[in-house]
Write a structure and sequence with these properties.
Blueprint (H helix, E strand, L loop, with lengths): L1 H11 L4 H11 L7 H12 L2 E2 L29 E3 L6 E5 L5 E2 L16 E3 L8 E2 L12 E3 L5 E4 L12 E3 L6 E2 L2 H10 L5 E3 L22 E3 L6 E3 L12 E3 L5 E3 L13 E3 L6 E3 H10 L5 E3 L4 E3 L15 E3 L6 E3 L12 E3 L4 E5 L5 E7 L5 E7 L7 E3 L4 E5 L12 E3 L4 E3 L12 E3 L6 E2 L13 E3 L4 E5 L13 E3 L5 E3 L1 H4 L10 E3 L20 E3 L6 E3 L14 E3 L4 E4 L10 E3 L6 E3 L9 E3 L4 E4 L13 E3 L4 E2 L16 E3 L6 E3 L12 E3 L4 E4 L13 E3 L4 E2 L15 E3 L6 E3 L14 E3 L4 E5 L2 H5 L27 E5 L2 E5 L8 E3 L4 E4 L13 E3 L4 E4 L13 E3 L4 E4 L13 E3 L4 E5 L19 E3 L23 E5 L5 E5 L7 H5 L26 E2 L11
Helix pairs in contact: 1-2
Length: 1005
């Protein structure tokens, strides 16, 4: 009787199978579990090892499995469910059990023939293949192997599970589904209600394979599956479909229904797909889709209006993502009137205006007796949990209602133009607060100290001020990410001296924060992984206690632009990025950890040699040892490291010997800079293997070689600097049909080249022929997120370091060689050229009138040659020209007048005895003496050069030049002689003028 009563209870409470199985087992005199099934379970579980906590399970509690013991009733084991009548095992849940090892094809799991539910999610099965025997569970209704690290082809035998209701193989990145397997799955699983295949590789699957999906389907999840082609239209009309998620399939196209779309759809996700979305049609359909509450359209292809005019009508939507769509116009404040809104993401658009100051209105409500009373109706979205409005053009202050939403957990307003103070938060719910890159000022609000659940706080790049007291952080025991960089008026001294705060900190960014010591609380930061203390006033030796911080966790450390003198041994074994540039470090080169990816100690006082042990760093991609005092030879094995390296910068040291000759096949190098050493010998031809090479700077060395013609085959080469070496011989004609297709900067000056200028070479410099006028708004620089290339060039007679190379910058410098013959007319086709220097050669003939076509030219130096004839009148049209030197030639005739030529001084033409007219004192024919332009338009600075002549650099004149318009920071000199900036054109290599850096809005990684 008792047993029948229990069966009745189980029948009524089918949602508690574990309760029923364990209760029946406990109350029955005979164990319900069959011994062979108990053994099979134990054998299956014991075939795996139990590993450390997988990071993906950190948010889940591990189901205890201590109850799995031989001789006990398996129906009472955790995660095991039995049929209450037969005792057969019908469900096994081993999810998130830290199992590690492959699933063997003959595992005892397959002997459990009565299984209906199997959950092996969140384990590590070592990329093992899914056996076809999974198709043998005839009664299976629920199968879940998500996050289980299985791989290979999806077994077509799964389609034999005709009773399957739910199938989840999501987040197995190395599993593939082919079209035949998917078609059989779709055709045979007629009872399927849930299909979850996130990030399973379907790149070879035709989307038409989904055409015959079960009409019972309620949930279809296909995000990031590499689907391409047209999505079947009929899926949008499935009668029971409630969730459709195809996010992050950028090659997937299709069309939304334009009418009669009346399904029970509740959630639609098409972010980053190729679906063209018509706004008017969408709003029309939303009236029919009355159940739709979640809409995710991030980074979509909207057609029609660029402003989401339909937004005020989304009253039923509770979750909306329209980020990364370049929508513009006024901020759609009416969205915030939706009282049920819980999730709103409008980040990375171009919305302007201010956030509304929502208020609480009063409205009259009639009662049953006919009287009326007033009642509050709040316009504030009081259920809001997520609000992301970052990366727009919002201005004004943060409205007070944003501090008064008790449900708000995530608030991101960074990268806008918000002003005013940060207000006091009235509730303690916030988990994420991101306000960086605005114009906020005033102190940090004390209410932050009460946000006990806060995990992320970002207020970098604002104008915050006042003292940051350590007491603000005492209660923030869950804070893992703190960004407070670049608030110049914020004082962090008491905060950095505090202890026993921020025990869980993982990322700490305090760049440009006026701190003088490494924060003391880092002593207890056991999990610190990302630490940026750059651009401060930290001085002296790095304290010994700091070398113990994050030994097993720190992977990013930036101490650059401080005054550190010594660092010692580097103990961080998982370090991947270490930036120590621009300090005062002395002693030998520190040996970076084995896993290092980026390593820079440039601009220090490091001495000694480069150890060959650096070649053991097989993860190293970026190595910058420039501007130190390193000596001895470059380890030959560094050439072999080019299989890994992307950027190698050894410039401005005392290295000697030869350049490594063993650059490997498959070389990855994009930038190789050895300028300013004492390297000699020949040019290494193995560099021809470096097909990705963009910057090659071997200037200021003692290399003795002929011109390396094989460089012209490198398809990506943009910068070639060989100046101040012992190169010799002729350049001749190119050896390939299309040489140097991307070359934009070439400097062969101060060598011993002779022969004619390479006419055919200039005909094929295609990158210098580009019309740059259409790209004036695009300021792009050479390099990537980890490094930006720099180079020293002679501009307007001055040696200047470009700390960043603007991608459109072009110049040719063949000066101080022994070239002869005429200047090729083909140079006039290089329309994007900014600078041209052929000075100090033996060139003859006329100045080509075709130079007048170089409308972007800013400096032209043809001095100290044997040119003759008149100055072409066409040069007057070079309105960007700010520097001209035609001195020491045999030119004659009247100097052209007008436009930019009215700004040049006598020094541009001296030692050309046949020239006359302004600005020369010699008049032409019967002309009267020339008058200079008004002094208010011209200012001059005289610079004397070592070879006995001098030029004048013109500051103001007709036109300002493209490079000034782009704000590249080229230096303009006023009165006086700023010798600390001026490197005379033939002077030492260490006196240089640096471009002014533009302040970045975020950290460069």
């Amino acid at each position: 009787m008792e047993r029948l009563l229990l069966l009745l209870i189980c029948f009524l409470f089918l949602s508690q199978p574990n309760y029923c199985s364990s209760s029946l087992s406990f109350n029955s005199s005979t164990p319900l579990c069959h011994s062979d099934q108990s053994s099979a379970l134990l054998h299956f579980r014991n075939s795996f090892s139990v590993g450390d906590s997988l990071y993906r399970c950190d948010y889940y509690s591990y189901p205890p499995k201590n109850s799995w013991k031989m001789g006990t009733d398996c129906c009472g084991w955790d995660g095991v469910t039995c049929d209450t009548m037969t005792g057969h095992v019908i469900a096994v849940d081993l999810s998130c059990s830290r199992l590690q090892g492959p699933i063997h094809p003959n595992t005892t799991l397959f002997s459990l023939r009565h299984l209906q539910r199997l959950n092996l999610a969140w384990n590590d099965f070592n990329d093992s293949a899914i056996s076809s025997k999974f198709g043998g569970f005839a009664d299976m209704t629920h199968l879940n192997l998500s996050y289980s690290i299985v791989a290979g082809n999806f077994p077509s035998e799964i389609s034999h599970l005709s009773k399957l209701v739910s199938l989840d193989f999501s987040y197995n990145d190395y599993m593939r589904i082919e079209t035949p397997s998917l078609k059989r799955l779709v055709q045979n699983l007629t009872h399927l209600t849930e299909l979850v295949l996130d990030r399973v590789d379907m790149s070879s699957v035709s989307p038409n394979s989904f055409m015959n999906l079960s009409s019972s389907l309620m949930s279809l999840r296909l995000p990031d599956c590499q689907l391409n082609g047209r999505f079947p239209d009929n899926i949008f009309h499935l009668p029971n479909l409630q969730l459709l998620d195809a996010l992050y399939n950028d090659m997937l196209t299709g069309s939304l229904p334009t009418y009669n779309w009346s399904t029970p759809l509740k959630s639609l996700g098409l972010s980053y797909t190729g679906f063209p979305i018509n706004l008017p049609n969408l709003i029309s359909n939303l009236k029919s889709l009355k159940e739709l509450t979640e809409l995710y359209l991030r980074g979509c292809n909207f057609i029609g209006s660029s402003y989401p005019t339909f937004l005020p009508n989304l009253t039923q939507i509770t979750s909306l993502d329209l980020s990364y769509n370049n929508f513009g116009g006024q901020f759609p404040w009416s969205l915030l009137n939706n009282a049920g809104l819980t999730y709103l993401d409008l980040s990375s658009n171009n919305f302007i205006g201010q956030l509304p100051n929502l208020s609480t209105n009063r409205t009259k409500v009639s009662s049953s007796n006919g009287s009326s009373s007033s009642q509050s109706v709040s316009q504030i979205p009081s259920k809001l949990v997520y609000l992301y409005l970052s990366d727009n053009l919002l201005n004004g202050t943060i409205p007070s209602w944003l501090y008064d939403i008790p449900s708000l957990l995530y608030l991101s307003l960074e990268y806008n133009q918000l002003t005013g103070h940060i207000g006091e938060f009235l509730h303690n719910s916030l988990v994420v607060l991101r306000l960086s890159n605005n114009k906020l000022h005033g102190p940090l609000p004390l209410s932050i100290s009460k946000l006990a659940s806060l995990n992320q706080l970002s207020v970098s790049f604002n104008n915050l001020s006042g003292n940051v007291e350590s007491k603000i952080f005492f209660r923030l025991k869950n804070l893992e990410y703190l960004e407070m960089s670049n608030n110049p008026l914020l004082s962090l001294s008491s905060f950095t001296f505090a202890t026993n705060i921020l025990p869980k900190i993982i990322q700490l960014q305090l760049s440009s924060s006026n701190i003088t010591e490494i924060p003391h609380f880092l002593r207890t930061a056991e999990n610190i992984g990302d630490l940026d203390l750059s651009k401060n006033q930290i001085k002296g030796n790095i304290p010994k206690w700091f070398l113990e911080v994050g030994k097993d966790s720190l992977f990013y450390l930036n101490l650059s632009y401080n005054n550190l003198t010594s660092i010692g041994h580097l103990p961080w074994k998982y370090m991947t990025v270490l930036d120590l540039r621009s300090n005062m470090l002395q002693g030998p080169l520190p040996v970076p950890p084995l896993l290092i990816y980026f390593f820079s100690v440039s601009r220090n006082n490091i001495t000694g040699q480069i150890s060959s042990s650096i070649c053991n760093l097989s993860s190293l991609k970026y190595l910058d040892l420039s501007y130190n005092h390193l000596s001895n030879m470059i380890p030959p094995c560094l050439g072999n490291l080019s299989n890994y390296l992307i950027d190698l910068d050894l410039k401005s040291n005392n290295l000697h010997g030869t350049i490594p000759s063993t650059f490997a096949k498959g070389c990855y190098l994009k930038s190789l800079k050895l300028n300013g050493n004492q390297l000699e010998g020949s040019f290494p031809q193995s560099l021809v293997h470096c097909r990705n090479l963009e910057v090659l700077d071997f200037g200021n060395n003692k290399i003795n070689s002929t011109f390396p013609h094989w460089l012209e085959t490198l398809p990506e080469l943009r910068v070639l600097i060989l100046r101040l070496n012992n190169f010799h011989g002729t350049l001749g004609n190119p050896k390939t049909k299309f040489p140097f297709p991307n070359l934009r900067i070439i400097d062969l000056s101060h060598n011993e080249f002779h022969g004619h200028l390479p006419t055919n070479l200039f005909k094929y410099l295609k990158a210098m022929m580009m019309n740059v006028s259409a790209n004036k708004g695009e300021l792009k620089y050479m390099g990537d997120n980890f490094y930006q290339d720099s180079v020293i060039v002679v501009m307007k007679g001055l040696s200047i370091e470009l700390v960043k190379i603007q991608s459109l910058f072009t110049t040719i410098d063949f000066s101080n060689n022994n070239f002869k013959g005429e200047i090729p007319k083909s140079i006039g086709e290089l329309g994007s050229l900014r600078g041209l220097n052929f000075s100090h050669n033996n060139l003859v003939g006329h100045v080509p009138p075709s130079l007048g076509n170089l409308t972007n030219l800013e400096w032209l130096d043809l001095s100290s040659n044997k040119l003759e004839g008149e100055i072409p009148i066409q040069l007057v049209d070079l309105t960007s020209l700010a520097f001209l030197n035609l001195s020491e030639n045999y030119l004659f005739g009247q100097i052209p007048q007008g436009k930019q030529f009215n700004t040049f001084t006598n020094d541009s033409y001296k030692e050309n005895h046949g020239l006359c007219g302004f600005p020369m004192t010699k008049a032409c024919g019967n002309d009267e003496g020339q008058q200079p332009p008004p002094s208010s338009t011209i200012q001059e600075d005289d610079f004397e050069f070592e070879n006995g002549f001098h030029w004048k650099v013109v500051l103001l004149g007709y036109g300002v030049g493209f490079m000034f318009g782009l704000g590249l920071g080229y230096l303009v000199f006023s009165s006086g002689k700023p010798k600390w900036l001026v490197n005379i054109v033939y002077g030492g290599r260490h006196n240089k003028v640096r471009r002014t850096k533009k302040n970045a809005h975020g950290r460069t990684r």
